[in-house]
Write a structure and sequence with these properties.
Strand order of the largest sheet: 3-11-10-8-7-6-5-4
Shape: globular
Order of helices and strands: EEEHEHEHEHEHEEHHEHEHEEHHH
Radius of gyration: 19 Å
Low-confidence stretches: 1-6
Mean pLDDT: 94
Helix content: 25-40%
Amino acid sequence: MELKTKKYFKELKIGDKLARLPIIQGGMGVGVSLSRLAGSVAKEGGVGIISTAQIGFDEENFEKDQAGCNIHAIKKHITRAKEIACGNGLIGVNIMVALKHYKEHVKAAVAAGADVIISGAGLPMDLPALIGEHCRTKIAPIVSSKRAANLILKMWAHKYDRTADFIVIEGPKAGGHLGFSENQLSDINQLDFDNEITQIIDCKKEYEQKYNTKIPVIVAGGIFDKNDIAHAIALGADGVQIASRFVATVECDASDAYKQAYINADEQDIQIIKSPVGMPGRALRNKFIQKLDNARVPISKCYNCLEKCNPAKVPYCITKALIDAVKGDVDNGLVFCGANVGRINKMTTVHDLMTELFG
Protein backbone atom coordinates (compact mmCIF):
# COMPACT_ATOMS: atom_id res chain seq x y z
CA MET A 1 0.00 0.00 0.00
CA GLU A 2 1.59 3.26 -1.12
CA LEU A 3 1.95 6.06 1.39
CA LYS A 4 0.39 9.40 0.59
CA THR A 5 2.46 12.37 1.74
CA LYS A 6 1.42 15.87 2.67
CA LYS A 7 2.29 18.61 0.20
CA TYR A 8 5.05 20.06 2.39
CA PHE A 9 6.93 16.76 2.37
CA LYS A 10 8.61 16.75 -1.04
CA GLU A 11 10.52 13.98 -2.73
CA LEU A 12 14.22 13.70 -1.98
CA LYS A 13 16.33 14.15 -5.10
CA ILE A 14 20.03 13.33 -4.87
CA GLY A 15 21.43 14.03 -8.31
CA ASP A 16 19.71 11.63 -10.68
CA LYS A 17 18.48 9.42 -7.83
CA LEU A 18 15.07 9.79 -6.23
CA ALA A 19 13.42 8.72 -2.98
CA ARG A 20 9.69 9.36 -2.82
CA LEU A 21 9.91 10.24 0.87
CA PRO A 22 12.48 12.72 2.26
CA ILE A 23 13.78 10.35 4.92
CA ILE A 24 17.02 8.51 5.44
CA GLN A 25 17.07 5.68 7.97
CA GLY A 26 20.26 6.23 9.91
CA GLY A 27 23.00 3.62 9.81
CA MET A 28 23.39 1.72 13.10
CA GLY A 29 26.18 -0.73 13.84
CA VAL A 30 27.09 -3.34 14.76
CA GLY A 31 24.35 -5.35 13.06
CA VAL A 32 21.40 -3.12 13.97
CA SER A 33 20.72 -1.79 10.47
CA LEU A 34 21.47 -4.45 7.88
CA SER A 35 19.63 -5.56 4.74
CA ARG A 36 16.26 -6.35 6.28
CA LEU A 37 15.74 -2.91 7.84
CA ALA A 38 17.34 -0.94 5.02
CA GLY A 39 15.44 -2.85 2.35
CA SER A 40 12.13 -2.38 4.16
CA VAL A 41 12.65 1.39 4.48
CA ALA A 42 13.51 1.67 0.78
CA LYS A 43 10.47 -0.43 -0.12
CA GLU A 44 8.31 2.25 1.54
CA GLY A 45 9.98 4.97 -0.54
CA GLY A 46 12.77 6.13 1.75
CA VAL A 47 16.54 5.72 1.84
CA GLY A 48 17.62 2.58 3.72
CA ILE A 49 21.11 2.61 5.17
CA ILE A 50 23.26 -0.39 6.12
CA SER A 51 26.06 0.16 8.63
CA THR A 52 29.32 -1.47 7.53
CA ALA A 53 30.84 -1.38 11.02
CA GLN A 54 31.82 -5.03 11.65
CA ILE A 55 28.96 -5.98 9.31
CA GLY A 56 30.32 -9.52 9.00
CA PHE A 57 30.02 -10.22 12.74
CA ASP A 58 27.73 -13.19 12.18
CA GLU A 59 29.69 -14.69 9.28
CA GLU A 60 31.11 -18.17 9.91
CA ASN A 61 34.80 -17.19 9.75
CA PHE A 62 34.55 -13.79 11.49
CA GLU A 63 36.70 -14.70 14.50
CA LYS A 64 39.63 -15.49 12.17
CA ASP A 65 39.11 -13.06 9.28
CA GLN A 66 37.18 -9.94 10.20
CA ALA A 67 38.29 -7.95 7.16
CA GLY A 68 37.33 -10.63 4.64
CA CYS A 69 33.99 -11.35 6.29
CA ASN A 70 33.11 -7.65 6.38
CA ILE A 71 33.79 -7.19 2.66
CA HIS A 72 31.72 -10.27 1.83
CA ALA A 73 28.88 -9.07 4.07
CA ILE A 74 28.83 -5.58 2.55
CA LYS A 75 28.15 -7.01 -0.89
CA LYS A 76 25.69 -9.60 0.47
CA HIS A 77 23.58 -7.11 2.43
CA ILE A 78 23.44 -4.47 -0.31
CA THR A 79 22.21 -7.14 -2.73
CA ARG A 80 19.63 -8.46 -0.26
CA ALA A 81 18.39 -4.98 0.61
CA LYS A 82 17.83 -4.15 -3.04
CA GLU A 83 15.87 -7.37 -3.47
CA ILE A 84 13.65 -6.47 -0.51
CA ALA A 85 13.16 -2.91 -1.80
CA CYS A 86 11.70 -4.21 -5.09
CA GLY A 87 12.97 -1.22 -7.05
CA ASN A 88 11.64 1.38 -4.62
CA GLY A 89 13.61 3.99 -2.69
CA LEU A 90 17.39 3.95 -2.38
CA ILE A 91 19.87 1.65 -0.65
CA GLY A 92 23.09 2.96 0.84
CA VAL A 93 25.73 2.42 3.48
CA ASN A 94 27.17 4.31 6.42
CA ILE A 95 30.95 3.90 6.58
CA MET A 96 32.90 5.39 9.50
CA VAL A 97 36.14 7.16 8.62
CA ALA A 98 37.58 5.75 11.86
CA LEU A 99 37.44 2.18 10.54
CA LYS A 100 40.77 0.42 9.92
CA HIS A 101 39.55 -0.83 6.52
CA TYR A 102 37.65 2.30 5.54
CA LYS A 103 38.98 2.37 1.97
CA GLU A 104 38.14 -1.26 1.35
CA HIS A 105 34.61 -0.77 2.67
CA VAL A 106 34.00 2.17 0.35
CA LYS A 107 35.23 0.27 -2.69
CA ALA A 108 33.18 -2.81 -1.79
CA ALA A 109 30.03 -0.71 -1.43
CA VAL A 110 30.58 0.93 -4.81
CA ALA A 111 31.22 -2.43 -6.46
CA ALA A 112 27.99 -3.78 -4.94
CA GLY A 113 25.97 -0.92 -6.40
CA ALA A 114 25.20 1.17 -3.32
CA ASP A 115 23.09 4.18 -4.27
CA VAL A 116 24.65 6.37 -1.57
CA ILE A 117 27.55 6.37 0.87
CA ILE A 118 27.29 8.43 4.06
CA SER A 119 30.52 8.90 5.97
CA GLY A 120 31.24 10.33 9.42
CA ALA A 121 33.12 9.59 12.68
CA GLY A 122 35.93 11.65 11.20
CA LEU A 123 36.27 13.89 8.15
CA PRO A 124 35.96 11.91 4.86
CA MET A 125 38.50 14.02 3.01
CA ASP A 126 39.53 11.26 0.55
CA LEU A 127 36.07 9.85 -0.16
CA PRO A 128 35.82 11.25 -3.74
CA ALA A 129 39.08 9.53 -4.70
CA LEU A 130 37.95 6.22 -3.24
CA ILE A 131 34.75 6.01 -5.27
CA GLY A 132 36.54 7.00 -8.48
CA GLU A 133 35.40 9.13 -11.40
CA HIS A 134 32.09 8.62 -13.19
CA CYS A 135 30.77 6.61 -10.23
CA ARG A 136 26.97 6.50 -9.90
CA THR A 137 27.16 6.15 -6.11
CA LYS A 138 26.34 9.44 -4.40
CA ILE A 139 28.43 10.56 -1.43
CA ALA A 140 27.72 12.64 1.67
CA PRO A 141 29.75 13.70 4.70
CA ILE A 142 28.22 13.78 8.16
CA VAL A 143 28.95 17.14 9.80
CA SER A 144 27.97 18.79 13.06
CA SER A 145 29.32 22.28 12.43
CA LYS A 146 29.72 24.90 9.72
CA ARG A 147 33.48 24.61 10.21
CA ALA A 148 33.52 20.89 9.37
CA ALA A 149 31.21 21.39 6.39
CA ASN A 150 33.36 24.18 5.01
CA LEU A 151 36.58 22.18 5.46
CA ILE A 152 35.21 19.20 3.56
CA LEU A 153 33.54 21.15 0.75
CA LYS A 154 36.61 23.33 0.29
CA MET A 155 38.95 20.32 0.18
CA TRP A 156 36.77 18.33 -2.23
CA ALA A 157 36.55 21.33 -4.55
CA HIS A 158 40.29 22.05 -4.40
CA LYS A 159 41.60 18.49 -4.61
CA TYR A 160 38.95 16.73 -6.71
CA ASP A 161 37.09 19.55 -8.44
CA ARG A 162 33.74 18.21 -7.23
CA THR A 163 31.34 18.72 -4.34
CA ALA A 164 29.12 16.68 -2.06
CA ASP A 165 26.05 15.05 -3.56
CA PHE A 166 24.24 15.76 -0.29
CA ILE A 167 25.12 16.61 3.32
CA VAL A 168 23.93 15.05 6.57
CA ILE A 169 23.91 17.48 9.51
CA GLU A 170 23.91 15.50 12.75
CA GLY A 171 22.82 17.34 15.88
CA PRO A 172 23.67 16.80 19.56
CA LYS A 173 20.61 14.59 20.25
CA ALA A 174 21.79 11.81 17.94
CA GLY A 175 22.64 8.28 19.05
CA GLY A 176 26.02 6.61 18.92
CA HIS A 177 29.13 8.66 18.20
CA LEU A 178 28.70 12.42 18.42
CA GLY A 179 30.62 15.26 16.82
CA PHE A 180 30.52 17.42 19.93
CA SER A 181 32.65 17.87 23.04
CA GLU A 182 31.53 16.55 26.40
CA ASN A 183 31.15 20.16 27.60
CA GLN A 184 28.81 20.94 24.72
CA LEU A 185 26.76 17.82 25.41
CA SER A 186 26.39 18.70 29.09
CA ASP A 187 23.94 21.45 28.10
CA ILE A 188 22.79 20.95 24.52
CA ASN A 189 20.11 23.64 24.77
CA GLN A 190 22.79 26.33 24.85
CA LEU A 191 24.13 25.25 21.46
CA ASP A 192 21.34 26.86 19.39
CA PHE A 193 21.81 24.14 16.81
CA ASP A 194 19.06 25.53 14.58
CA ASN A 195 21.37 28.44 13.88
CA GLU A 196 24.21 26.03 13.06
CA ILE A 197 21.95 24.23 10.58
CA THR A 198 21.07 27.46 8.76
CA GLN A 199 24.76 28.43 8.63
CA ILE A 200 25.68 25.09 7.06
CA ILE A 201 22.88 25.53 4.52
CA ASP A 202 24.26 28.96 3.65
CA CYS A 203 27.78 27.55 3.45
CA LYS A 204 26.90 24.97 0.79
CA LYS A 205 25.25 27.53 -1.51
CA GLU A 206 28.66 28.67 -2.77
CA TYR A 207 29.38 25.16 -4.02
CA GLU A 208 25.93 24.73 -5.54
CA GLN A 209 26.64 27.79 -7.66
CA LYS A 210 30.20 26.72 -8.48
CA TYR A 211 29.10 23.28 -9.72
CA ASN A 212 25.64 24.25 -10.94
CA THR A 213 24.02 21.57 -8.83
CA LYS A 214 21.67 21.08 -5.92
CA ILE A 215 23.20 19.83 -2.67
CA PRO A 216 20.35 18.50 -0.50
CA VAL A 217 20.75 18.91 3.24
CA ILE A 218 19.51 16.20 5.61
CA VAL A 219 19.00 17.02 9.30
CA ALA A 220 19.63 14.25 11.85
CA GLY A 221 19.73 13.86 15.61
CA GLY A 222 16.61 13.76 17.76
CA ILE A 223 14.12 13.70 14.88
CA PHE A 224 11.18 11.82 16.38
CA ASP A 225 7.85 12.83 14.86
CA LYS A 226 6.08 14.71 12.09
CA ASN A 227 6.54 18.04 13.89
CA ASP A 228 10.31 17.54 14.02
CA ILE A 229 10.35 16.79 10.30
CA ALA A 230 8.31 19.90 9.52
CA HIS A 231 10.65 21.98 11.71
CA ALA A 232 13.73 20.74 9.85
CA ILE A 233 12.10 21.47 6.50
CA ALA A 234 11.17 24.97 7.72
CA LEU A 235 14.84 25.62 8.52
CA GLY A 236 15.69 24.89 4.89
CA ALA A 237 16.50 21.19 5.03
CA ASP A 238 15.50 18.86 2.20
CA GLY A 239 14.89 15.85 4.41
CA VAL A 240 15.67 14.16 7.70
CA GLN A 241 17.59 11.19 8.99
CA ILE A 242 16.00 9.04 11.71
CA ALA A 243 17.68 6.08 13.40
CA SER A 244 16.46 5.23 16.90
CA ARG A 245 12.80 4.97 16.00
CA PHE A 246 13.57 2.23 13.49
CA VAL A 247 15.10 0.00 16.18
CA ALA A 248 11.71 -0.85 17.68
CA THR A 249 10.40 -2.24 14.40
CA VAL A 250 9.78 -5.84 13.45
CA GLU A 251 12.15 -5.46 10.49
CA CYS A 252 15.14 -4.15 12.48
CA ASP A 253 18.05 -6.58 12.25
CA ALA A 254 18.87 -6.50 15.98
CA SER A 255 17.69 -9.15 18.46
CA ASP A 256 14.31 -8.86 20.15
CA ALA A 257 16.07 -8.22 23.47
CA TYR A 258 17.88 -5.24 21.93
CA LYS A 259 14.61 -3.81 20.64
CA GLN A 260 12.95 -4.36 24.01
CA ALA A 261 15.76 -2.44 25.72
CA TYR A 262 14.72 0.60 23.67
CA ILE A 263 11.05 0.12 24.51
CA ASN A 264 11.80 -0.24 28.24
CA ALA A 265 14.22 2.70 28.42
CA ASP A 266 13.43 5.95 30.19
CA GLU A 267 15.13 9.31 29.73
CA GLN A 268 17.16 8.82 32.92
CA ASP A 269 18.65 5.62 31.48
CA ILE A 270 20.68 7.59 28.90
CA GLN A 271 24.35 8.41 29.43
CA ILE A 272 27.11 10.13 27.49
CA ILE A 273 30.08 7.76 27.40
CA LYS A 274 33.64 7.83 26.11
CA SER A 275 34.09 5.64 23.04
CA PRO A 276 37.31 3.99 21.87
CA VAL A 277 36.66 5.83 18.59
CA GLY A 278 37.81 8.95 20.45
CA MET A 279 34.43 10.65 20.41
CA PRO A 280 31.68 10.94 23.01
CA GLY A 281 28.75 8.59 22.47
CA ARG A 282 25.16 8.38 23.72
CA ALA A 283 24.12 5.00 25.11
CA LEU A 284 21.85 3.26 27.60
CA ARG A 285 23.31 3.02 31.09
CA ASN A 286 23.40 -0.68 31.94
CA LYS A 287 25.62 -3.06 33.93
CA PHE A 288 28.33 -2.76 31.27
CA ILE A 289 28.45 1.05 31.52
CA GLN A 290 28.32 0.92 35.32
CA LYS A 291 31.32 -1.41 35.33
CA LEU A 292 33.28 1.17 33.33
CA ASP A 293 32.74 3.73 36.10
CA ASN A 294 35.37 1.98 38.19
CA ALA A 295 37.67 0.15 35.79
CA ARG A 296 38.38 -0.71 32.20
CA VAL A 297 37.06 -3.96 30.77
CA PRO A 298 40.10 -6.11 29.86
CA ILE A 299 40.48 -6.91 26.15
CA SER A 300 41.40 -10.50 25.30
CA LYS A 301 41.17 -10.21 21.51
CA CYS A 302 41.56 -7.42 18.94
CA TYR A 303 38.94 -7.40 16.17
CA ASN A 304 40.87 -4.94 13.96
CA CYS A 305 38.00 -2.48 13.70
CA LEU A 306 39.44 0.98 14.36
CA GLU A 307 42.38 2.67 12.67
CA LYS A 308 43.49 4.39 15.87
CA CYS A 309 42.97 1.92 18.69
CA ASN A 310 45.47 0.57 21.20
CA PRO A 311 43.86 -2.44 22.92
CA ALA A 312 46.17 -1.95 25.89
CA LYS A 313 44.86 1.56 26.56
CA VAL A 314 41.23 1.86 25.46
CA PRO A 315 38.60 1.30 28.19
CA TYR A 316 36.91 -1.61 26.39
CA CYS A 317 36.61 -3.39 23.05
CA ILE A 318 33.82 -1.64 21.21
CA THR A 319 33.37 -4.49 18.71
CA LYS A 320 32.78 -7.10 21.43
CA ALA A 321 30.51 -4.75 23.39
CA LEU A 322 28.34 -3.96 20.36
CA ILE A 323 28.16 -7.58 19.18
CA ASP A 324 27.17 -8.81 22.64
CA ALA A 325 24.36 -6.23 22.76
CA VAL A 326 22.96 -6.76 19.26
CA LYS A 327 22.84 -10.52 19.86
CA GLY A 328 20.74 -9.98 22.98
CA ASP A 329 23.03 -9.51 25.99
CA VAL A 330 21.85 -5.95 26.57
CA ASP A 331 23.06 -5.87 30.18
CA ASN A 332 26.68 -6.67 29.38
CA GLY A 333 26.99 -5.02 25.96
CA LEU A 334 26.95 -1.51 24.54
CA VAL A 335 23.54 -0.18 23.47
CA PHE A 336 23.82 3.11 21.59
CA CYS A 337 20.65 5.24 21.44
CA GLY A 338 19.33 8.69 20.60
CA ALA A 339 18.21 11.30 23.13
CA ASN A 340 14.53 10.51 22.55
CA VAL A 341 14.73 6.77 23.23
CA GLY A 342 12.57 7.27 26.33
CA ARG A 343 9.65 8.23 24.07
CA ILE A 344 9.70 4.87 22.28
CA ASN A 345 7.20 2.64 24.06
CA LYS A 346 5.99 0.00 21.62
CA MET A 347 6.99 -2.27 18.78
CA THR A 348 5.83 -1.28 15.33
CA THR A 349 6.58 -2.01 11.68
CA VAL A 350 8.49 0.05 9.15
CA HIS A 351 5.30 0.58 7.15
CA ASP A 352 3.34 1.83 10.16
CA LEU A 353 6.15 4.09 11.29
CA MET A 354 6.52 5.63 7.83
CA THR A 355 2.74 6.11 7.71
CA GLU A 356 2.85 7.85 11.08
CA LEU A 357 5.66 10.17 9.95
CA PHE A 358 4.40 10.99 6.45
CA GLY A 359 0.80 9.83 6.17
